[in-house]
Design brief:
single chain, 5-stranded mixed β-sheet, 19 helices, alpha+beta, Alpha-Beta Plaits, about 600 residues
Length: about 600
């Protein structure tokens, strides 16, 4: 059973459709991995023209007396391997200017290399700065930062048995890059917003604008990147200021090194990461040369947006290709993440996180199956399946240098290795199924590009034994009278409650309290194992005591509890509250009550 019955791929359908309907059909194929590959196979690298929704001419629109041309723009789809390499390596025939819609003329991705003997080459200068800055960290240092970031992200992303791999990868990348660049913990929401809005805007420029109408996507991305640039500029200045003039006196409850760090940024020595050296924002001005502060902010924003989105997509595609295979079993046996680096490189080549790139022709360009006129937007298709050594987001065979080859590869591969290592070693890692159809859920991709969501599951109790229970239920009126009744019930029943808790052998701590100005009863516990089994144990052991409690609670529950254990479990589940932000700390996450009480002197 499937939620949607897709018709078989049939390229002949296009011949019967007008431009808009044909574009809709192509977009439907584009979003389905199987149909998209079948269509590309059918094209066999030949030039194809898509009737695009993108504006026919650049904004801003012409004066009111000269209405802007309406209808479809024509975008060229280039998929032949030789044509693809030419598009990515020839700045004489192809321009990167489409990216300027997102980041403006100073956006590194949008700047084309200067022609020979016509300096200055701003693209080369921005690229050289980025390469030099990112090269400040050795692989061993990046591995340490990656391990730290993945552990930080796992605190919330892996708190439940069912989790979203895309969200886990995103949060790890944000922690990793936020650390290395030198942002503060308070900047995390800002980085998150810039990465999400910016990467969606990036995908809109590459593919989305040709198939969908989202007039707010690029402005939202530009505003998010502007907020990030404002904060980045302030931090760069404060790093420079603290170097010249350390804070005095030393901030309370901090190490002496905190005097040279911006306010709110935790010194790396406090995190046990002093071996990393200095944050990137600290050293950027010394590398700037003729680039100004605004250029530095644009470079940082572009690197961060691209890296976070690419990590998110790359991890989802890699895990989706590995899960349930013997290759995954072999990788799981590797004790250290560094042992997966070569595997990550191969997987990236097999599953490029950026499968399409935008270009605009400078003049007439002959390609397989036709000629692309000057000033024509193109979608360049990167098909790893047919292009050995095909350039992609982090790949290049080295034979022909790419004018816009990825410069963040060395920075990102250690993080991907750590993420892949951590994910594959989750106990019982498995796919999740559609609750309606039973189909295996695959990564959800935006416009056939970035992975937005990839639901997976694992045996959470094997990684974190304890779970919190926070049940808050309203009292009946009058509140004061029923609050007093509950005090008497607990006072009288405390020995029996103690016996039931000891007998369960899976409860670490438990207590009742009156909350919300004594208008609600709250039960808080930390327990091991399965929720249903835990609650049913008390329904059967002390059901009559809960009957007394529920006599004062304004909740519909059939009594007695002992005869309605399933209803009791569902009532507790309904009023159970998750910890704020899903965060729950345990000093001994893999130790259950039975293990603790076996130690001499621990048992009561």
């Amino acid at each position: 059973m499937r939620r949607f019955k897709r018709p078989d791929f049939d390229p002949a359908e296009l011949k019967r459709l007008g431009p808009e309907r044909a574009t809709q059909l192509i977009f439907d194929w584009w979003r389905d991995d199987t149909d998209r590959e079948a269509w590309f196979d059918h094209l066999n690298g030949a030039l194809y023209w898509i009737a695009s929704r993108a504006p026919i001419q650049d904004d801003p629109a012409p004066p009111r007396s000269q209405p802007a041309p309406q209808g479809h723009a024509r975008v060229a789809l280039i998929s032949d391997p030789g044509n693809v390499r030419h598009a990515l390596s020839s700045s004489a025939d192809y321009s990167n200017i489409p990216y300027a819609e997102l980041g403006g003329a100073g956006f590194m991705l949008a700047i084309d290399p200067a022609p020979p003997n016509r300096p200055p080459d701003w693209h080369a200068r921005q690229r050289a700065l980025a390469v030099q800055a990112l090269g400040a960290y050795q692989p061993a240092q990046l591995a340490v930062a990656a391990q730290w970031a993945v552990r930080q992200a796992a605190l919330l992303s892996l708190r439940a048995a069912h989790f979203d791999l895309a969200e886990f990868a995103e949060q790890a990348a944000l922690r990793y890059l936020g650390l290395l660049f030198g942002y503060s913990e308070r900047d995390h929401p800002l980085l998150e917003d810039a990465a999400r809005c910016g990467y969606r805007g990036l995908q809109y420029v590459i593919v989305g604008r040709h198939f969908v109408s989202e007039p707010g996507t690029l402005p939202a991305a530009q505003q998010a990147l502007a907020r990030l640039a404002t904060r980045t500029s302030a931090l760069i200045d404060e790093y420079a200021l603290r170097r010249r003039s350390p804070r005095w006196p030393r901030p309370p409850a901090t190490v002496d090194a905190a005097r040279k760090w911006p306010e709110g940024v935790q010194p790396w020595c406090e995190l046990g990461l002093s071996g990393l050296g200095e944050p990137l924002l600290h050293g950027l001005p010394a590398l700037a040369g003729e680039l100004n502060g605004n250029d530095l902010c644009n470079i940082v924003g572009g690197l961060l947006v691209g890296a976070v989105g690419n990590v998110q997509t790359a991890l989802c595609l890699m895990v989706a290709s590995l899960i349930g295979t013997s290759e995954a079993d072999a990788l799981r046996q590797k004790k250290e993440a560094c042992g997966l680096v070569s595997n990550v490189e191969r997987l990236l080549a097999r599953h490029p996180p950026v499968p399409f790139l935008p270009r605009r022709t400078r003049g007439r360009v002959p390609v397989k199956g036709g000629t692309v006129p000057a000033d024509t937007d193109c979608i360049v298709v990167l098909r790893a399946a047919q292009n050995a050594g095909c350039p992609h987001a982090w790949g290049n065979d080295g034979n022909a240098p790419l004018t816009h080859g990825c410069i963040g590869r060395a920075l990102i591969v250690p993080l991907l290795a750590e993420l892949l290592h951590h994910t594959l070693r989750l106990p019982g890692l498995d796919v999740t199924l559609d609750p309606l159809t039973g189909e295996e859920l695959k990564p959800e991709r935006l416009w056939g590009m970035g992975c937005l969501r990839y639901p997976l599951r694992y045996d959470r109790e094997k990684r974190l034994v304890q779970q919190p229970l926070i049940v808050v239920m309203p009292l009946k009126s009058p509140h004061a009278e029923h609050a007093e009744r509950l005090r008497r019930v607990i006072r009288a029943g405390a020995p029996r409650i103690q016996w039931a808790l000891d007998d369960s052998r899976h409860i670490h701590m438990a207590w009742f309290e009156l909350s919300d100005d004594e208008t609600a009863l709250t039960l808080r516990t930390v327990y091991d194992g399965d929720f249903d089994a835990y609650i049913q144990h008390f329904a059967l052991k002390v059901g009559d005591l809960f009957d007394q409690l529920f006599a004062s609670i304004d909740v519909a529950l059939p009594l007695p509890v002992v005869e309605n254990p399933d209803a009791f479990v569902e009532t507790i589940r309904r009023y159970n509250r998750a910890p704020l932000g899903g965060y729950f700390y345990s000093a001994y996450p893999n130790t259950d009550v039975a293990q603790i009480t076996r130690h001499p002197g621990v048992a009561p």
